[in-house]
Amino acid sequence: MRRRIGKTLTTAVVATTTAALLTAPAAHAAPSTFVVDLATGTGALRYGATGFLYGLGDEGIPDETMLAALKPQVAAQKAPDGLQHPNGDALKIAPMFKRAGGRDIQIYMQDIYQQWPYENLGIADYLAKVDTMTRKVVADPYRSSYVYVPFNEPDAIWYGGNLNGLLADWKTVFQRIRAIDPGARIAGPNFASYRSADLRTFLTYARDNGVLPDVMAWHELGDDFFTSWHLHYADYRAIETSLGISARPITINEYGRISGDLGVPGNLVQFVAKFENSKVDGCLAYWTTAGGLNDLVTRNNQATGGWWLHKWYGELTGNTVAVTPPSPGGSLQGLAAVDSGKKQARIILGGNNPSSGTYDTNVQVRGVPSYLGTTVHATVWGVDNSGLNPSTGPYVVREGDFTTSGGQLTVPLTGLKGASAYQIILTPNKDLTAALTSRYEAEYAALGGSARITYGTGTGYSGTYFTEGYGASGTASTKFVVTAPADGYYNLGLRYSAGPYTGAPADRSIRLRVNGSNLTDVALPATADWNTWRTVTTKVYLPAGINRIEYNAYTTDDRDAVNVDYLDVAATSGTVSAYESESTANTLSGTAVVVSDSAASGSRYVGWIGAGAANTLRFNGVTVPSAGRYRLVVSYANAEVVGDHAYNNNIVDRYADISVNGGAAKKVVFRNTLAWNTYRTRVVDVDLAAGANTITFSNASSGYAPNIDRIQIAAVLG
């Protein structure tokens, strides 16, 4: 969140950008030099820049796959039952965040209040609320994951010009939290910007009064981040040292300007690089709607260009290495990591001023390790800014072999786009085929368990090598992240080898897992040897957008001893049955009613479902040939908004309780579609009986379910 002066700052940003456009360097300026030293390690990967303020709205908002594929670290969310926004309750999003691998959840405690800036009802009123909130946290099963943030931008809210007042209340609130939750982790002071003198005063007082924050927090929301982050960071660490205070973990729990940064890969890479190189955490600022990972996600489960940047970041493995951009405060920034076990190095870079322009750079790689060889293969990928539209995904920029000299090589890049981000993957020179944008190579996928890449003596594979390590293992996993352009059936073409293996049967199998659920065991007929490859196709119904496709070892008798080469994903046809909500075969109860809308399928939908248990829509005669799990594809609309805010659109993500054949209802939250005549789909798995079924939509709370247009039923496996 930001002070109301945020709109004034927007004008300043626009003016700065305009000036840059007028003074942009010539299009054919000499290439810059971007240096990566693979021999100089800088520590373990922190992945700290993958954090979000109100990036999560509710269970399933955004879709869990969108979060899990990114290796999330920190979420900053509202206080339990807070009134500041209609969604984003820290305790409600915790289960999904933790399932997706998240580390810490910061609780913005002042978001218990409804107004912005927060209404100041006095410290006694706030302390009473602190008591209630803290007790709720203590009772929560994810208690150890929470970090309390008692104040938000106190240099402007409640304490503007009154630092001494803040210090006194910080001590009071800090001590109250610790009295209820002795093991509490507390973050602060959470200033709206970097304030060196005030931080020194704050830390001195906190040290002397035994109320030092466990996590240091402030915001980086202005132009000065790009030129001065390294100065802010160095100055803060110097303050700690001068005061004899041990180094605190740092969370920049709001980063990014009010316009121009969120979702833009070429701008976001600058934050990612600086935070990872400093080993601090950061949360994308909340300038937009809640529940969309701060514009990394659109339509709940589709990726913008910025999402792909963070996905690349989350797939770095090994340790980070030294990177020297053309200038510390310049627009071109990046990070890199080397993994000796995988025999790979990955470099992520981007950024230009103006972001609308293009630039050239020479990526100079030093300290090339011997396992990469004297000739190194480089594949360069790009991802463009897509705004709030779904991204078409990464594409191949160039690919080639580069000879090292003195342990050094140079990859020249020209015509790079300022708003785009780029990834370079360095491997031994073992490529047999060119990289394809449409193909998912196993050696570039995330690996789990004993799965490994050896770059050994295998032949006949695609790309630069393949994944092995499935023999004598129940843990090996190759994890692909793929894009489905639309809801529908897709052929998953897995290329593999299954040669002779002691103790294993001739024919093998592997377990297919899709979006976190085991789907089927895929039969893999034997191959003549380990250099002979076959492709087996599985037809699966996938939701539009991002999908996680894993091929996992699962047995103890080596039936799953295989090597994995690549995955192809191709749209295909299949049986999908549609049922219109307005059909006279359905049963509408209470206030539920058919409404005309030319944008809906059949020009009608059913609305006014919920706001009481009696107001329901029941689809009758939903017929399937056999019992089992099916995809329920719900077409819906919802544009409910509550209250008013200076810059956040306080959307409401309505939910429906969905019951099959009168059984236990499943609560499903539907992402706001932002317009009543905009219909999106939400795919839900349901278990159906053979023959006719009923599916009922309800909401017994005071809130309504979304408007329901129609449902479609498809078998999970075609």
Automatic annotation (TrEMBL):
Domain CBM6: 438-570, 577-714
InterPro entries cross-referenced by the UniProt entry: CBM6, Cellulose-bd_IV, Galactose-bd-like_sf, GH
Keywords: Signal
Domain of life, source organism: Bacteria
PROSITE patterns linked: CBM6
UniProt-listed SUPFAM superfamilies: (Trans)glycosidases, Galactose-binding domain-like
Segment forming the signal sequence: 1-29
Name of the protein this chain belongs to: CBM6 domain-containing protein
Organism, scientific name: Actinoplanes campanulatus
